[in-house]
């Protein structure tokens, strides 16, 4: 820890003194678009959390040229104190242990994955900065002794659990994974840790537990194991602590019997996300005594899978934070419905997502507000006075008036399947003749973006491009039928969904058919390449970063390259989702960009990370070499220290500077017509 510089004190003053009534008024838009750094520079504000009694607010913040520090604001007198900061590290995740104490780890935002030499460590400190204690080693490579007065620190592979727990003592639960010789997780130990003494007590595991869930009182109640293609949920009896099997289902497949636990109620009721015999996931109560779902869902949404987390205080379950077309709250508690209405009336221009402290009679609620044009803004709402005090903007250099409008649309694929999508149009642009970027999400069997401000789409819109983000078949969040329709469809119907979206935008008169580019990371990079192969008349250029280039390489990356795909994933998931490399060899060849490289004739921007374990760099180098045998319009970017995406600010800004120039040359104002 060290004394903060003048810049750091200025950042603290801004955080503490900005607490005036929140105003999201629109200011006149400057004539020049925002700089790339406004979208992709490291954010100076990294989130906030109320103490259990809501008398204090903890936040991660920084200033230009400064490391991220941890600050605690006393909400009674609006005074703040920096309680943790470092010269050689940034404060990372943090959580309240109780009203007086916090736990946190560190990270290094100045280092890419390949240059990272230290584990995140684990630390605790009082809200006034006193009683600072290192709990776990920051240096990787095994267990290291040391610490104050010879106290033995926990090993470097000790991590925050990501669940707040009871928040009523000096104890928290932390996880400690154990790896096998292939660096795959064998099991995860759960430790009860005293944040003042550093002492721990291990919780008995039910076999090779991979994940843990605390109950409403903050005690371990559920664990899951994953072996031989099956997930088993184990329940810990409150009385004697013994474990019993609660449910078991296939890890991969249609998911009809899958249960996703999301939390426990005060009465011991388990809440899960499940299908319940339907095509869509809903929230159910699950009886741990009988092993049965409730007869009816507690929460469902037409056309969407419920996806989210419970919102609770110490007394009861209040509601759920969920995502449909956007992220919002759905309240079970009548008082919370009244509070939400009051907040929304005060801030009508945004979606306002509430986070509640553990203590039910606390006066403050933390509000995260956003829209399609407004990046998240953190505020405090006083339930007694109705006053809104703004805490911080996450992207203060963004001018909402310069941002594009976004809408959630649905269009029909050629076989009749309805495809959801997000469409972002440039601010003030006429709805016609626009250049288009089809932006494809990674995964691919995940949910893409939801409605709201997004750095990538708004950056492109600020440069004059319409942006279409399809939720192609195989994407999750839109029911089982939509997901199942994407199995073994890489380069086939999944690809058609993207082209059909572009042609829908053409038919609607939104875009210029001669100025369309396809782009995306990971699977989106694969789809970019296959888009250029399958639809050369539609796409004028492509941008692929960290993209898969050969289906076979997902199973076997080559003798000098390793992947983070586990043996279980390769044995059970990939064959169901992609196919069998031997039995489906001809299809793999027809839908692998490397094998079809001679058909890629359009301009292409390729970017890869040198230490990417998800899509190792040989995916990129082999594709680059194959395409350049017949196509010299290839721009290659290699970030040696990066993994599966750009962690470093300088690399994000460099990459999107290249994207801006590339698009301008080929479909933008600089394109020859």
Q: Gap between N and C termini, in Å?
A: 59 Å
Q: Can you tell me the overall shape?
A: globular
Number of helices: 12
**Radius of gyration, in angstroms, nearest whole number:** 25 Å
Query: Which regions contain 5 or more consecutive residues with pLDDT less than 50?
Result: 1-7, 19-25, 141-147
* Overall helicity: 10-25%
Number of strands: 35
Q: Could you report the average pLDDT, rounded to the nearest whole number?
A: 90
Q: Overview of this structure, please?
A:
Helices cover 18% and strands 32% of the residues. The chain contains twelve helices and 35 strands. The strands form eight sheets. It has an eight-stranded mixed sheet with strand order 28-29-31-30-32-33-34-35, with helices on both faces. Strands 1-2-3-4 form a four-stranded antiparallel sheet, with helices on one face. A four-stranded antiparallel sheet has the order 5-6-7-8, with no helix packed on it. A hairpin with a 3-residue loop joins β22 (317-323) and β23 (327-331). The radius of gyration is 25 Å and the shape is globular. Mean pLDDT is 90; it is low at 1-7, 19-25 and 141-147.
